[in-house]
Amino acid sequence: MRPTTDSSWIVLEEGYDALLERSRATRFAISNGFLGVRGARAIHRGGRWVGTSRTLVAGLFDTAGEEPGIPRLAVAPDWMKVRILLQGEPLIHHVDDATGQERILDMRRGAVLGKGCLSNASASGVRLRSFHMTSLSQRAIGMQIILLEMDQGGIEVTLEASIDAVDLGLLSDRVEHGLSVWRAESSGTRLAIATTVSLQIDRRLVPSAVCGLSQWSWKWTSIPGQVICLARTVAVTRASKDDIDPARSAQDALESAQIQGWPAVVAAHERAWEHRWACSDVEVEGDPVAQQALRFALYHLNGAANPADEHVSIAARALTGDDYHGHVFWDTEIYLLPFYTLTWPQAARALLMYRFHTLGGAREKATAMGWQGALYAWESADTGAETCPSQVVGPDRKLVDVNCGKQEQHISADIAYAVWQYWQITGDDGFLREAGAEILLETARFWASRAKMEPDGHCHIRGVIGPDEYHESIDDNAFTNVMARWNIRRAIETAALVSARWPESWRRLSGQLKLDEAELKRWGVVAEAIATGFDSESGLFEQFAGFFTLEDIDVAAYAGRSVPIDVVLGRERTQKSQVVKQADVVALLALLPAEFPGDAAARNFEYYASRCGHGSSLSRAMHGIVAARLGDAETAVDFFRKTSAIDLDDRHAAIEGGVHIASLGGIWMMAVLGFAGLSFGSDHLALAPTLPAAWKSLSFTVQWRSRYLKIRISEPTTIVLIAMEAGDPMKILVNGEMFTLSRVEPLQVKIKPLAGATA
């Protein structure tokens, strides 16, 4: 149970600060893509701790709560609750105790460790060490180990371990010793927890004095130097209302873990993490702060996905908190899928299959709004139905209408973009035939019905919200329209591809969708006529129709603000200004750089970056990618640092509701897609590196169509070293020069970075 000593692999907290406890619970959260636990302290102090553990289970949604009808990720029972009494008195918070507190997130091993000296009101004390994890190799399994050392003899010690299911909102279906089953009232989804708890005193197993249905208790008199070990293992399973009873699967999983023994369970978990790090680690020399930020991002990204479950996706806060009710946004496809597709394609496939399984909900939404095809939910839970609330409480405590669920429609193109990227990078033809093609075609059908031909000869998409959510009910948002055009063109390309390569699959799919050549031709006409807002003379995209006529406010003049700029300016003035909430045209530039001819990329970045208030955690990552591709590594690394600070800097108090998983994905994207300049063509990978001055080297691993590549970029003279560990020979473009790479020997290229390269 000793933590990793390398500081780049750990997050360390010393002492105790009540004001930061809830944010720290987020930072020290553990997850395996199915079971997530916020970073609780090991011992319950009679309610005196500000933060308590909180367990979240992927796919466990219920509508109970203050917003009826809005499904939210339900809070599962707290299976880590432990209480200690010395001489009948609970441990309490002493000022002197705080200095001895320590909590470590061991990112290499995927575990949280703690230690400290704790005492009660009469100053009776105990030394404590703790360890807990959720297994990456057996996702149903959670484990908690607590070691206590008694310095004093003659102390009456009471230790209680329990499962706290108070105020969950779940209905109890079955309770017996060591096994409980709950049910979500609205969805019927059931949750089972099977538990075993043991206590050893000086390595001697001690039976519990009290065994309640969900409680274990021991009482004894201490002797000096006594060592106590509490070990708890839980197996958590989830089942829909139509599945078999989850209790049996929970009991089976627990029995398997007991047969293995906790050392073997921990060892298998650590091997699973070792494999994930081998596939995804990013190493930076010369910048230890950036190195730790990357490891923190990768730790949470690797812990957020579950390739074994195609019916769940990754929420805006993953399984580290319940902000946004556990709903899934465009964040997953645009900010997370690049990481998974290039380092963990099995996880990427499962996430995209979630969108395939919720295609029915997307069709229903499009039909209900008067269009064809599939319009995906802006906020999605378990069924794919729109779960975006219609109103929220604004900063001024007044109700504000939320139009995102109706107007933020670019999500359909975002999902199509991720589908196409996945297929291009992995070459997974089975996925394209079985699921991807249908998503591409049905989203294109939506856009073809959504964009209306008008007398000016252009197809317009009116009444939308782009990524910049400060401006609502706008016409011809450049991001939305260009992505829609791209979506339609890729769908037409997909139809031709599937028809030519797999004619039987095409007959089945086109028949199922009632899609013929005449409709495909109509789509082509729409794509050619969509208004994009691009002005060839200035080289600028107008963010939406009329944007350039709005008030031009100097955002830099408000650089010292402590609140979002729309709060400073007021909602009405912000809406009438060119102030941008987050990357919009800049996001388009990051996703589709080929849409920006000549020096249009630099012109658009310069124009829009200066007008962005970065009112979203998503924003700076896109700016960082683009700045790096344009050759401005120092501006890019500033965006990198500010993005990294969102979840790691204690001056930020906005992480109580969970980590910002999309911005963590953005950190990886800035390093690999930005500074390394990684991109891809139809038959090759490309690199165009531009490292920050402080970075002496950047190393990472990616997968490309069943090939495993290790890439290292080193300075001060840029040398790119690429080794292929598995796979057939392939082409790779390095700063504009094409090479052939094979397993025979690594490729080494010495280059001078090309300013403005966008590969």
Topology:
Elements: E1 10-14, H1 21-27, E2 30-31, E3 35-37, E4 55-62, E5 72-76, E6 78-86, E7 89-92, H2 95-98, E8 102-106, E9 111-120, E10 125-134, E11 141-150, E12 156-164, E13 171-176, E14 179-183, E15 190-201, E16 204-205, E17 210-211, E18 215-221, E19 226-239, H3 246-260, H4 262-280, E20 282-285, H5 288-304, H6 331-343, H7 345-357, H8 359-368, E21 391-393, E22 399-401, H9 404-407, H10 411-426, H11 429-450, E23 452-453, E24 459-460, H12 478-501, H13 503-513, H14 517-529, E25 534-535, E26 540-541, H15 565-569, H16 571-575, H17 585-591, H18 600-609, H19 619-629, H20 633-648, H21 661-675, E27 679-680, E28 684-687, E29 697-704, E30 707-714, E31 719-726, E32 730-734, E33 737-741, E34 747-750
Parallel strand pairs: 28-32
Antiparallel strand pairs: 1-8, 2-3, 3-4, 4-5, 6-7, 6-12, 7-9, 8-9, 9-10, 10-11, 11-19, 12-18, 13-14, 14-15, 15-16, 15-19, 17-18, 20-29, 21-22, 23-24, 25-26, 27-28, 29-30, 30-31, 31-34, 32-33
Helix pairs in contact: 5-20, 5-21, 6-7, 6-10, 6-21, 7-10, 7-11, 10-11, 10-12, 11-12, 11-13, 12-13, 12-14, 17-19, 19-20, 19-21, 20-21
